[in-house]
Every structure is written in C-alpha cells, then in structure tokens.
Amino acid sequence: MLMAQSLFILLKRTRPDCHITVLAPAWTKPLLERMPEVDESLVLPFDHGELKLGARRRFGKSLASAGYTHAIVLPNSFKSALIPRFAGIKQRIGWRGEARGLLLNDCRYLDKAKYPRMVERFAALAFPANKKLPDHIPDPRLLVTRPMVDKALAKFGIETTGGWPKRLIAICPGAEFGSSKQWPAEHFSMTSAKLVADGWRVVIMGSAGDAAIAQEIYEGIEKRVGHPLTDCCFNLTGKTSLAEAIDLMAACTLALSNDSGLMHVASAVDLPVVALYGSTSPDFTPPLASISRVLTTPIDCRPCFDRECRFGHKRCMTEIEPHRAVAAVLELYAK
What family name appears in the similarity comment (predicted)? Predict the structure, then answer.
C-alpha cells in the first residue's frame, strides 16, 4: 500500500480536481489516514484469497451510486477486478493477468524491463498507456506531526532531551514473507549491543508474530552489554498499533531492517534506512528513503524470491556480517 502513494501523488498532480477513494483491507487505514492525497478510504470486506462472488457482486453494486469514473486496480488477481466491473465504473485500468481483459477495458501489458520497480508499475497507471513516466517519481511520504510523535514517545516511556530523541535506532527483525528474508537474531543482537555500548538506544519493533525473535534479540543484547537494558533498549514488538509504529519510527534517528513492511514505513517517514536483503531484491522494492544503504551478499543463488531457503543454509542473510551493519549505521548517522 505504501508504494501506491506515489500513484496517488501523481494523480493529484496531473488531475488536481480528482477525488481519490481507496478500497483496501482494514489494516491499511492508519497508512491511508497519513496520505494527504487520499480523500476517502473504504474497507474491503473480503479476506485475502476469498472469492465470494455473490457478495462481491452485491458490494460492487452498492458502489454504483457513488459516481466513480475511473478505477485503477493494483492487485493482479482476477477477483480484484470484479468489484469495479460490478460497480459499473466506465474506465477500469490495470495490468494484464489472470484473464482480466474480461473485466478491465484498459488492460495493459507489463514490460518488466521497462518498469523493473514496483513503484514504477504503480505510477505508470496514473498516465495513459505508452506515455513516458516523469524522470522523477515522487516517493511515498506519510504525514506525521510532532504532537503525534510526542504522544507515542510518552506512552512507551521513551524520554527526550528537549528535542527529538538522539541516537535512537529502530530495529525491525520481522519478515512475514518468510524466514529467507530474516537476518539472524544473533546478528541483530550483536549489532545492537555494539551500538548500545557506544551510547545508542534501541527500539525493537514488529508485530505480535515477531515476539519470539524480538525477545531473543533483547536477551542477546543484555547478555553482551552485561547490564540491564533499562532506558537503553525498548522491546515494543506486538505492543504498538500501526499508527503508533509510524509515529515512533518518525522519532528515530535511523532504522535497521529486513526487507519488510516496517522498512517501507521507515522510508515513508524519510528515516535513513539500513536495509538487509536476502532472497528478495532491492531492484524491485528498494527502500525509498532519501538516504539508505542496502546490504546483501554476492552468492549466486540470490535473489530467489523463495519464502524459505531451498538449500537450508540461508547464506544470503547469515553472511551479512554484523560489523557491516554497524559500519552502515555509523556512516548514515555521520551524514
């Protein structure tokens, strides 16, 4: 959803009077509320993978009176194109896939060489087919205010010294895609312990599903620094809402993250990001922050885009050594 903001920005630039309504799952609402270009959001009442053809038809029909003139369908599935068709929206735009030509009347062939990045594929749908993209595609940027940040910092007991917290790094160890995208807990704890010893504070962030690895990282940091982590390490995994995670991320100095949703959140609040890529590729979904460093390994089998390592060694992640991450953090901090 975050990279779709680039599309929304371009739509507003080229058609200032357009009204943008986004139909998306409920979990995206905190993101959409931080996008000034979005005028309205509607909750998609279907879970991922559900067809429910009759219910989709009824839902689509219920939107017909809204008077939508254009629908841009970003997911590539057949079922995602059903609702605009049932709603009777005249212009239905999207990339070809799953025989969607039956539902889309501006169904485009995707030249992956021409548009290698996901953000480019979204942005291209703001323009007529075959029109050249602008030289610069606007990066996603979520709206965050100081009161929002102060409220989140106060709730989780992260003190400031008059201004923004200094040398506060967000550690994002989760990877819902699969373990092939996950840097080892030991590497995160080694890196974090080195930074804590140098005076940094650490915030471990993620969903409830990341709680086990986060606790392993926290305990590893504590063991390495040799003292309790009171006031220097905050394990907030599973304790924040998405809105709070956005605000806390905005308060940080840097983020160290796997290729994950939180990496893109950090980028969208323009936080300097050190991004760890294993099975996936920064050529497709890079961090879109103004300042970033991507760490990878040169092994032949990456990127494979497998959720789990087919060889079982996960060398693409394990061989990104902690000292490289520390050096990258300090390099970005010096900027």
Answer: Belongs to the glycosyltransferase 9 family.
